Amino acid sequence: MSKITAAITAVGGYVPDFVLTNKVLETMVETNDEWITTRTGIKERRILKEEGKGTSFLAIKAAKDLIEKTSLDPKTIDLVVVATATPDMKAASTAAYTATQIGATNAFSYDLEAACSSFLFGMSTASAYIESGRYKKILLIGADKNSSFINYKDRATCIIFGDGAGAVLFEPNEEGLGLQDELLRSNGEGRDFLQATYGGSSYPINDKTFNEGKHYIFQDGKTVFKNAVFNMADVSERILKRNNLTNDDIAWLAAHQANKRIIDATANRINLEEEKVMMNIQKYGNTTSATLPLLLYDYESQLKKGDKIIFAAFGGGFTWGSIYFKWAYNPN
Questions:
Q1: 96/145 Cα distance (integer angstroms)
Q2: From 92, 118, 282, 288, which residue has the greatest number of CB atoms within 10 Å?
Q3: Annotated active-site residue in 116, 227, 231, 259
């Protein structure tokens, strides 16, 4: 009997209609298009503007896109995982609401939070459930409404983040396709350098801290950049070496879209040509948990069965990792 592996069999995505360009940001904060583009590679990002709509709105849209494209019966889904750093509410599960709204009434569901590594870690989780043999269809969604905790007077953060969602379906595979290997890491000493301090259980929000904007996200850009460049490139190189892969073997690098310079550094570390590097940061900015599935959404038509893909991510906390993956289907 063939070993069961966990393969992605479908992809969906969604980004809001409102486009926040660098030119518009010039009217909001002291910056300019050239400065942003040179340092990040970002030209625009999508923002969910409608009041009362949160991360679940994005997740539901991405999931429904996948369901409609594949004519999937949502009642056959066993598990829905929403990877997110911006849940709709405290205590109430975003994933549970998402699953109900898409008709996945036979699924159990939960949120997974590891900052910008959330979707990558979710790939590991979904694969383990599939490989166990107990579950056949797992919907993994990466979704974030980053605009909900961005201070649009803070140049260090407001130029980077956008809103969006991507969804993938994991199913069993007996051809040896899907997730091949993973190298996942974390270091809690990094949490002081990228976080939203107030609003959590350690520092509940109050009138004073709210008026001072302490609930907005903060980052020490230089420290985060240095750690992201080293760690994301390091795990990508290590996973190639331990699987005896060369740059010629790799079809694609799907790296977290935080900063083009970080992506380029990772590609250079594994000697990968520019045309093999998935890139959409210029359109969406950093959508946190949604960057990796949105790459698959944008590049799905170019992916071929058997393509070897290196996934890599780095996020607050610090969290980071790399996954070696074989694509399971050809484009329609």
A1: 17
A2: 288
A3: 116
